[in-house]
Amino acid sequence: MVIQKSSLSSLVFKVRKNQPELLAPASPTPHELLLLSNLDDQMGLRYQLPLVQFFPYNPSMAGKDPVPVIREALSKALVFYYPFAGRIREGTKGKLMVDCTGEGVLFIQADADVTLDQFGSDLLPPFPCFDELLYDVPGSDEIINSPLLIIQVTHLKCGGFIFVLGMNHTMCDGSGIVQFMKAITEIAHGATKPSIIPVWCRELLCERNPPRLTCIHHEYDQLPLDNKSLFKPYHSSFFFGPKEIHALRRILPRHLADSSTSFDVLTACLWRCRTAALQWQNPNQEVRLLCIVNARFGPCRFNPPLPEGFYGNAFVFPAAVSTVGNICRSPLSYALELVKKAKSEGREEYVHSVVDLMSINGRTCFTRTGSFMVSDLTKSGLRDVDYGWGKALYSGVAKAGLGDLPGVSFYVSYTNSKGENGRVVPICLPNEEAMVRFEKELNDILNKFKDEKEEPMNILSVSGGPKTLGSESKEGDVGGSPLNEAKIMGMSEAEGRVGIS
């Protein structure tokens, strides 16, 4: 079953917040200026990214308050991660740096008149009343001269709590912030210092002398903006478990099914569904899939590797480029081949070329027009974060998108209410009608080669109860064109770490 959750939610609750406070490091820290890397300060990362964790009531911790525990551990962790307690400054030619002032991060304690059960049996973004769970302190959402982290811990009526962290993305990527969060948990469990000592070393991702472009970077092509790429978003999310990945593999030629990871297969499917749902008028319109790869892992891993403890941004996003017509009318294997090719381009030299591009062309933003970016957080370790009350029921992004860039989705590890392990994918589209079209495209693909004895896969919708997948689809028709792919599913899978943003 694919579980879907839409922007529509009837749950409303009140949150009483204490006065926000600046939480400084527990002991004196160096006062210095630290340059950010060329990957850190590119325009496409000058946004706040919220992460949310829902923790259930733990009877073994009855009578213990998580707020003072987290607050004290955070203050002690900032001694080691003292740049987080500083402020971003902008230098000549837009270069960003961290002024390590020791001012502190924003910390908010709150109480909500709601229980965890009221959020539903499956905790999927978007979450109701999320603005109440991460207080928008006036001026705190600025990138320059503002706190670099905002953390709110909200007590629930049931004894559980919600931890929300808003991070300035110029400071770190997914791996970096999880490293910091795990430092907090270790100290909360009684450690005097983190098991991994952080290092700055941002100069490792600054331009070469002289800078030189050695790769083609279609992800930074500058194209005119359009209303398909910038819009007031409508949010939803989908859960994909083993059955859904199995269904996708069945429509692929055997050699692709055997050689492609779940990430590859799912990403190709979502790219196709999203492209069709947007209803581009021009079939020759270029569209891009930006596939994040990280210099810490896999084929993109540096040699020698980035030092242990490095917590800066270390990812790039090679682009697969095609047209609307080719994506929607070709077999799914066409999009899959493009995804795999783009991912394979993400090697160490590609990272250095992107770093040099930022120096040569200025800190440009990645292409927004027709772009869909995916970031895999399933191996980031985020769901293993435990402040002493056990692991969270949901631990991931609060919604799709990055700042005012709606075309960004994340893969988040999740175990649903039936005990099935898989990933949640938040999706952002211009309106509810586009989301319905996306859902139909997805339904058609997942049920394309359904065994006659199998029950059709269902989507559980917040706004209307279960819907039978494939009830409106025509045999052999996906996105308005026949598919001639083999009815074969390859079971082997060489999963590796994909990019983590």
Percent range of helical residues:
10-25%
Topology, number of strands = 23
Strands of the widest sheet, in order across it, are: 15-12-16-18-19-11-1-20-21
Low-confidence stretches: 459-497
Write down the overall geometry: globular
Number of helices: 10
CATH architecture annotation of one domain: 2-Layer Sandwich
The CATH topology of one domain: Chloramphenicol Acetyltransferase
End-to-end gap: 28 Å
Structural class: alpha+beta
Strand content: 15-25%
InterPro entries: CAT-like_dom_sf, Plant_acyltransferase
Protein name: Benzyl alcohol O-benzoyltransferase
Keywords: Transferase
Pfam family, one: Transferase
What brief labels describe this structure?
501 residues, alpha+beta, Chloramphenicol Acetyltransferase, nine-stranded mixed β-sheet, seven-stranded mixed β-sheet, 10 helices, 23 strands, 22% helix, 23% strand
Structure description:
This protein has helices at about 65-80, 130-135, 175-190, 240-250, 255-260, 260-275, 325-330, 330-345, 350-360, 430-445, and strands at about 1-5, 15, 20-25, 35, 50-55, 85-90, 95-100, 105-110, 150-155, 160-170, 235-240, 285-290, 295, 315, 320-325, 370-375, 395, 410-415, 420-430, 460, 465-470, 475-480, 480. β8 (about 105-110), α2 and β9 form a beta-alpha-beta unit. The longest helix is centred in the middle third of the chain and has 16 residues, at about 260-275. It has a domain at about 10-220 and about 260-385: Chloramphenicol Acetyltransferase (2-Layer Sandwich), CATH 3.30.559.10. By secondary structure, the protein is of the alpha+beta class. The strands form 5 sheets. It has a 9-stranded mixed β-sheet with strand order 15-12-16-18-19-11-1-20-21. It contains 10 helices and 23 strands. This is Benzyl alcohol O-benzoyltransferase. InterPro entries: CAT-like_dom_sf, Plant_acyltransferase. Belongs to the plant acyltransferase family.
